[in-house]
Model the fold of this input.
Amino acid sequence: MKKALLLLVFAVLPLRNLWAQKQLSGCVQDEEGGLPYATVQLTDSASVNLSTAADERGCFQLQVPQSGVYHLLISYVGYEDYYRQLEISQDTNLAIRMKPGIQLEGVEVTASKPLITPTADGMTMSWANTEALKGLTTQQALARLPMLRRKPNALPEVVGKGRTVYYLNGRRSFLSEEQIKALLESLPAEEIERVELVLNPGAEYDEQGDVAIVKIYLRKGSLYSRYYLNAWTMQRTFNSQGGDITWAKQGKWNSTLMLHADNDVEYHIYKNNIREQDGSAASYNDERWINRWGLSTSLTWIASHAKPSGQVWEVQASGSYRTNQGAPSRELNNFRQEVYTGNGVQTVAMGKQDNSKLEREGEGTLGLFYEQPLGKGKLTLNTAFSYYNSENEGIMNYEDYLGNDDERRRQYVAQSIRSLYNKVDYERALSEKSVLMAGVYGAYAVNGNDTRWWQWQQSAYVPEEENTFVYDYREYYFTPYVSWQKQWSERWQSKVGLRVENTFNEGFLNGVRKFENTYFNPLPDLSILFVQNENHIWQLQSRGSIQRPAFWELNPYRFYSAPNYYVENNPFLQPSYSIRNTLSHVIRQKIVLGLFWRYEGRKSAQMLLEDGEGNNVDKRLNAADFHKGGIFGDYTASFWQERGQLNLYAGGAFFQYLPYSAYKSVISDALNFTWGTSGTLTLVPVQKEGKVLSVDVGAGLEGPINEMNTQISSLFYSYVGVNYRFGDWTLSLTSNDLGRNYIYRLESTMYSRISEQSMYQDVRYVQLRVRYTFGSRIADSQDGRLDKGDIEQRMGK
Done:
């Protein structure tokens, strides 16, 4: 009898829990109807934290585990957040009406889940199947998005752009590219809330050149503390290993802390054959580089906190150190020089060079962000301090095979960089559909370089005074800007801006000022969005930008690496100015077609010239103007019940250099053509509770291109990636370019000489990655007295 009662109790307990559950349902709408895929979040003051996405009609359902007082927050792009506190004691159905916001971030025009939602200056991206992202790193997931293309062992890049930069939580990050890459490799894709592409950065963005911005917003609102433990090994010519542990915590402060370490080795082969066009002489160089980056460690911390009053704080801090003291880098070079006479070939020089280099490098960044409601707008402040120190010690040994004197030299280079960055913005809504933003940003940087050379003579190293110098460089820029965005109607939206960049720099050589420059550049931008209908959206974008010279390009010191060859950069090099115009057509939120034209004035290049004394001079110069026009297309589609995805990209362009009169004999002004294509196929054969298996297969082909006086041959690449998640474990296996050597081939003509070069880059690899997730518990900082401000903070409002 007792056993029967006990069985009855255990049988009733699950039913009791089921009876205790209540259902919260509803539909999210605006004045015109349902808002598809709105984000719905529900939490109490203790342990319940639920979230879901509405369906294509804007309707949702949540199973609430028990009766009580809950806080409901609903968000949708372009609308004000909806907040409500409600008591749930029975099944509840709600009719929710959302109000349009003033941010004008995008125009939603679809009744099905979009892959691409255009905005005036870019687009918001999403994945067709978010469940298939489980097990992927953030970096792997980004490569599956439209308009982003995978790069071998690097961050994905936006197609058709010269440079791609990454922002974290929508704000400029002062972490190095390697630190951002390590962070995105450590975080799983589930930590991403959304991704935005800014294809035409406006005046409020402090970015140079032909650039696109990828804004990654980390997930907020869940109450948990979770750890991710990653380890990887990569087999290239040599083996590299690494790992990290990342702690992600959501609570009063939303924090991400990562400790990373790796030991990386790269191997490169470089061949350079130079011959006179009349066939009178030739030289052959065969180099092998073993770059041992050594043990690298870094610590990265990102934390943000929002107060009920609307104040927002964020801290980004990082530090890293790298050294190869245990195993230096090596460079091996076999050299031969020949001359041709009537009697045949005569070898006039032949030898071997064996160089080694020890490196130490450290850097750190501390960035602070603050946002404060002010009047009818908001004020934001951003400041960051960065430092970088490095020391390199090299030994160069040259062994002559023809009985001439051998040579041994020693080099020491120390470099330091200090910079302080500040940015102030004020944003105000002029009306419900118009926003004005104004502000100023700038930075002050101090760079120092101490270079010393010694030459071995008899039994000791003797300083080379002619190749020893101290170069100090200072740069300050100050840029006020204004930007105005307005939604004219349901179909039209525009954004226009102007920034005025003022730059001052000066350089000192051995304590004596050698140059000072002042640059003044007004830079406009314009973005227009036209929604023809839900299947056809047009974007017109135009942006002016400059590329300031780097401090090493302005170094006036003349460095002799051979008796008749020296390097001399240009202290009066001017920044290049460019303007890019793009017309894009987004079709069914899956296809992007575009036309573009870019003009660049004062384009600089490293030129090999001959001076009046018969010496060869390697010098940086503003050598030509440049224009380029082309067409591109990107297609993304899902199939097999969204368990398959196809990404295709193709583009072609013409370009032409317009050399200045002094360089017309060196730089060709012929019209050139180039093209590129790539594709990725993603399949998810296993997708069930606790297990996800996904496969990515991709390939690409880059057409030939002409860089000033250098012809670069076509290049093919391919890769395969397999990811399997089961429970708390994830295994990832990636192979890159296994079918062939990854070789750049180029040919350049300079006066009477033709140079043929080829480089094997060590990007053929197989990488195995293992990740283990643990924690997943409710944050300890909860209490039972949540007000509206607290719950908005926890949900990331």
Summary: Residues 1-19, 102-114, 777-797 have pLDDT under 50 and may be disordered. The chain has four helices and 46 strands. The first helix runs from residue 2 to 20.
